[in-house]
């Protein structure tokens, strides 16, 4: 089956899908869009995703959007390299970890730290930013505990849980290295200093198959 992936550089959600495709070794046609194209929300693109967002995976039978849904589709379509486990117990455990990250961890990063730093509003309330940074470490606590007893979030094998969490955490680290974040002493650029198991996991993830090819071009500077 031929796939076309519509994405924009710097999107952690698009990166999730690229990592899954690369790790599984599934070829696809890259349809990189720029921010202006995405903002334009042309009728042609809205036919692919009426919500006007990326990532979108075009298959021979239509389109799929929402990053976790795309990864679940790919795992069923290409089961040779499983991302959601092989037994019912593994499947449930992986979805538990995915849900923990999506429901209790991701939004804190995205809304309270990443968004203000990217939009230039972080220095409007440095105390609030520092409080959010402290909560970020608390929110990562379950991951540190899980990674203390296993190599990956759902056990000793890399799964969808790891691929889904990684881009958002890398985005957090990226924006936390900005001068204004350093000036406010958010101390989020080196997570491994306080969370050594998480730091070791990040190093392992950066060596996974497909990582280098999928690494967002705009994140390389």
Account of the 3D structure:
This protein has 221 residues and is an alpha+beta fold. 57% of the residues lie in helices and 8% in strands. It is built from twelve helices and four strands, in the order E-H-E-H-H-E-E-H-H-H-H-H-H-H-H-H. It has helices at 12-24, 35-40, 43-48, 67-77, 88-104, 106-119, 126-139, 141-149, 160-176, 179-183, 196-205, 211-214, and strands at 4-8, 29-33, 56-59, 62-65. Strand 1, helix 1 (12-24) and strand 2 (29-33) form a beta-alpha-beta unit. Helix 1 (12-24) packs across helix 9 and helix 6 packs antiparallel against helix 7. The longest helix has 17 residues, at 88-104. It is globular and about 50 Å long. The chain starts with a strand and ends in a 7-residue tail after the last helix. This is Glutathione S-transferase. Residues 87-221 form the GST C-terminal domain. Pfam families: GST_C, GST_N_2. Residues 1-82 form the GST N-terminal domain.
């Amino acid at each position: 089956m031929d796939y076309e992936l519509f994405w924009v550089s710097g999107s952690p959600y698009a990166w999730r899908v690229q990592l899954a495709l690369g790790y599984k070794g599934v070829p696809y046609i890259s349809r990189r869009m720029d921010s202006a194209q995405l903002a334009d929300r042309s009728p042609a693109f809205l036919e692919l995703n009426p919500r006007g967002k990326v990532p979108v995976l075009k298959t021979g039978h239509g389109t799929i959007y929402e990053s976790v849904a795309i990864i679940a589709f790919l795992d069923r379509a290409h089961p040779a390299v499983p991302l959601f486990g092989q037994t019912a117990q593994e499947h449930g455990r992986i979805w538990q970890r995915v849900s923990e990250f999506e429901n209790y961890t991701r939004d804190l990063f995205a809304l309270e730290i990443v968004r203000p730093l990217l939009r230039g509003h972080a220095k409007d309330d440095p105390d609030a930013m520092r409080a959010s940074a402290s909560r970020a470490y608390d929110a990562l606590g379950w991951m540190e505990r899980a990674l203390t007893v296993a190599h990956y979030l759902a056990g000793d094998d890399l799964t969808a849980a790891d691929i889904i969490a990684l881009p958002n955490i890398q985005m957090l680290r990226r924006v936390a290295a900005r001068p204004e974040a350093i000036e406010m002493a958010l101390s989020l650029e080196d997570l491994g200093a306080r969370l050594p198991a998480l730091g070791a996991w990040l190093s392992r993830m950066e060596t996974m198959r497909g990582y280098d090819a999928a690494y967002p071009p705009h994140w390389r500077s």
